[in-house]
Amino acid sequence: MAQRSHPHAEATYRVIPLDDGAFAVELTIPETYPAKVSPFATKADAEAWIAEHRRRVQSENEPSRWFRSSGTSGSKRRGGPG
C-alpha cells in the first residue's frame, strides 16, 4: 500500500514584502494556485512561520502520527461542583 504524503509536503515558500512594510509568505503547492499568508511584522517572523509550517507538515507525514492518541480518554471534566 502506498503511503500518502501531506498535501503541503512539496510546497515551496517565498517571503514577499508588502507595501505597508509588513511581509507575507507565498505558499505554492504543486498543481494549485499560490496562496498568501499574511501579515507578518518582520521578515524574520515570516521565515519563522515557514520553518514551523515545514516542521508541522513533516511531523504529519510520519507514519506514527496516524496512530497517535489524541491525548483524551473520552471523558471530559467540567469545572464546578460535581
Explain what you see.
By secondary structure, the chain is of the alpha+beta class. It has a domain at 12-64: Double Stranded RNA Binding Domain. Helix content is 23%, strand content 22%. The chain has one helix and three strands. The radius of gyration is 18 Å and the shape is flat. It starts with 11 loop residues before the first strand and ends in a 21-residue tail after the last helix.
Strand content: 15-25%
Helix content: 10-25%
Query: Given the C-alpha coordinates, what overall shape results?
Result: flat
Radius of gyration: 18 Å
Average pLDDT score: 78
Largest sheet: 3 strands, antiparallel
CATH topology of the domain at 12-64: Double Stranded RNA Binding Domain
CATH architecture of the domain at 12-64: 2-Layer Sandwich
pLDDT < 50 runs, ≥5 residues: 73-78
Order of helices and strands: EEEH
Adjacency order of strands in the biggest sheet: 1-2-3
Question: How many angstroms separate the termini?
Answer: 49 Å
Number of helices: 1
Class derived from helix and strand content: alpha+beta
Please report the first level of CATH classification, the CATH class of the domain at 12-64: Alpha Beta
Number of strands: 3
